[in-house]
Specification:
heterodimer, A: Jelly Rolls, Phage tail protein beta-alpha-beta fold, 12-stranded mixed β-sheet, 3-stranded mixed β-sheet, elongated, B: 8 helices, about 75% helix
Chain lengths: ~350, ~180
């Protein structure tokens, strides 16, 4: 098919070979398509594509005018275009993320990942800024957001519908569930730095950050939460955060700015001073002030694929400095120039840091 | 064709359908039961088949009544299967959505109805062509966005959209 020829050379006559409909016809709620020639039908569809891909403004306006002219040239053109508009009107009537997800799952399933494909579609629909439905007042769809994830070495900041920003550290994942009664963010993995926004509207909805171990309710604030295997740590940089264990047992702790707290499902530790350096990742930095080398490498390891291991012989060495996370190879190289260590690359994905000029037998 | 000939008197049509019903309903029910393996559904679909005949604008063909009934029932049957498939997908997707956001029964009915129609209009097209069309018409994605999503060129996206469009809007195969 030659798309470059484009629409616009009208004057086609009715096609006498158009299918005669009788017993074999489909009962069709959208109605029967008009009997137009395949050529006119093809032209009409190409006009639709032109309209869709015309840049907004003068170009779209010119396309619309040209289409108007084509429609006026023959009754068949007009009927063909009417048909497209009628069907598209029906389709637009169900332009919600749910409808779209079901349509993709049911009408064009992918072989083995039907469910995931549908969810991906939901996410696309929810985040595709230009989609028609976004502009419409179709609560609560606008506020139901799909998961956000970062890969290894990736750091990203997402802005939630209430203006809250959530910076995701490497290998992190959150679910965002905003409903009429609350704004809930679930930390599934990794670490986030949250700067809460003010919820507008008649009734301000509480903001809840949920982790595997408990719930945090910030009170106009900036705070970071990191999910460990069986614990989580919260550091408050501004405002205050109320902490409650997931099982609801125990009292509620209120952390003030400058405090941090580590807690598990069953136990809440003592509040300790917060460390700004722990949130430096949000500025793409790794900041160490006298940090043990094994801890430093564990931290670094979160930001690069593969494995970074530390020989116990050098684990006690101390590291200080501000390192840009954009290039973790350079951080490793910098370590060698400041500490008595050797960096061994077994592969790009398996790095061992050991003592310098020592046989690597251990 | 003058309009008068198209408009079959309702009474005449009803009589024809009644006749078909009296002589062939039992047979049709058996035919559907063999296809479905379920008496209950077969009874429903047999009923749907006759209802569909009553809603027709053209006279029913009575020369070959069973062949005729089979043709109509075949369509009812494929519609039934299509609806089942879409309902299954719908329930699967719905399971992922918070309960509070589930559509009302009415919204659900309209949604399923429309999906069944679109599914039929897009019937037989390759999955990738369908996906391109759904992205364009339901998700409002740009051609470039669809190309990126499906991992194909913008030219191919346009070719797919012409193909899906000529079939969906005009029931024609694109050349």
């Amino acid at each position: 098919m030659n798309l470059d020829a484009g629409p616009g050379t009208g004057g086609e006559a009715l096609d006498p070979s158009a299918p005669v409909r009788g017993l074999g016809r489909e009962d069709d709620d959208i109605g029967r398509p008009p009997a137009v020639s395949p050529r006119v039908a093809g032209r009409a569809v190409q006009w639709l594509l032109r309209l869709q891909s015309a840049a907004p403004g003068a170009s779209a306006e010119a396309t619309r005018r040209a289409l108007q002219e084509w429609r006026g040239r023959h009754p068949d053109h007009e009927r063909a275009w009417q048909r497209i508009e009628a069907v598209n009107g029906r389709l637009r009537g169900m332009a919600s993320p749910l409808a779209s997800a079901v349509a993709h799952a049911a009408l064009a399933p992918r072989r083995s990942t039907r469910r995931r494909a549908a969810l991906k579609t939901l996410a696309i629909a929810l985040f595709a800024g230009g989609s028609a439905w976004v502009a419409r007042e179709e609560a609560p769809w606008r506020e139901w957001l799909a998961d956000e994830r970062t890969g290894t070495g990736e750091r990203r900041t997402v802005t939630l519908p209430d203006g809250t920003t959530a910076a995701l550290n490497t290998r992190s994942a959150i679910d965002v569930r905003f409903t009429a009664s609350e704004r809930r963010v679930r930390l599934l993995a990794g670490e986030i730095l949250v700067t809460t926004g003010r919820d507008e509207g008649a009734a301000a909805r509480p903001f809840v950050l949920e982790t595997a171990q408990g719930e945090l309710r910030p009170l106009g604030t900036r705070f970071a939460v990191r999910q460990y295997a069986d614990a989580c740590r919260v550091q408050v940089y501004e405002g205050a955060v109320a902490v409650r264990r997931r099982d609801g047992a125990g009292r509620e702790y209120v952390l003030r700015a400058g405090e941090q707290l580590r807690f598990t499902r069953g136990a809440v530790g003592d509040a300790a001073p917060a460390d700004d350096a722990d949130a430096a990742w949000a500025d793409d930095m790794l900041v160490a002030g006298g940090m043990r080398l094994d801890e430093f490498l564990a931290e670094l390891g979160r930001h690069r694929p593969g494995r970074v291991s530390c020989d116990p012989a050098v684990a006690d060495l101390r590291v200080s400095g501000t390192y840009p996370l954009a290039d973790t190879d350079r951080i490793l190289a910098a370590l060698r120039s400041t500490l008595p260590v050797e960096i061994r690359f077994l592969t790009r994905y398996w790095v061992t840091v050991g003592p310098a000029s020592t046989p690597t037998g251990s | 064709m003058p309009a008068a000939q198209l408009a079959l008197p309702r009474d005449a049509l009803r009589q024809q359908v009644q006749l078909l019903y009296r002589h062939h309903h039992g047979w049709l029910h058996g035919w559907l039961r063999r296809k479905l393996g379920c008496t209950q559904n077969a009874a429903d679909l047999a009923h749907d088949t006759f209802m569909r005949l009553l809603a027709r604008e053209e006279p029913v063909a009575i020369e070959e009544p069973r062949a005729f009934l089979t043709t109509v029932a075949q369509r009812v049957l494929s519609n039934h299967r299509r609806r089942e498939r879409i309902e299954r997908a719908y329930l699967e997707v719905l399971a992922q959505v918070p309960e509070a956001l589930a559509p009302s029964l009415e919204e659900r009915a309209i949604l399923l109805e429309t999906l069944v129609e679109i599914d039929r209009l897009l019937g037989g097209l390759p999955p990738l062509v369908k996906r391109a069309f759904l992205h364009a018409q339901l998700d409002g994605m740009t051609h470039a966005g669809i190309a990126a999503e499906l991992g194909i060129s913008v030219t191919t996206v346009k070719r797919y959209l012409v193909r899906a469009g000529t079939q969906c809007y005009f029931a024609l195969a694109a050349d």
